[in-house]
Amino acid sequence: MDCRLGCGACCIAPSITSPIPGMPNGKPAGVRCAQLNDDNLCKIFGQPERPDVCAEFTANIDVCGTTNEQALWLITDLESSTC
């Protein structure tokens, strides 16, 4: 499965504990990443400063569902079950 351009759920729903440019302490769950632009695209995609956890994310129907809204719900649910 390919990522849906403009979805951004993986940049909003999960917490990220590693530093991100503009967010030196990472980000809490449910907070937009500082590197997510107005079109929900990563401004540092493919750049070395992009956190490894982001670069290693693979779109999957179980995580992303079939819509952007479903992806946000699924990732939020996964995040809450791992806290």
UniProtKB/TrEMBL annotation:
Any one Pfam family match given in the protein's UniProt record, by short name = CxxCxxCC
Give the protein's recorded name.
YkgJ family cysteine cluster protein
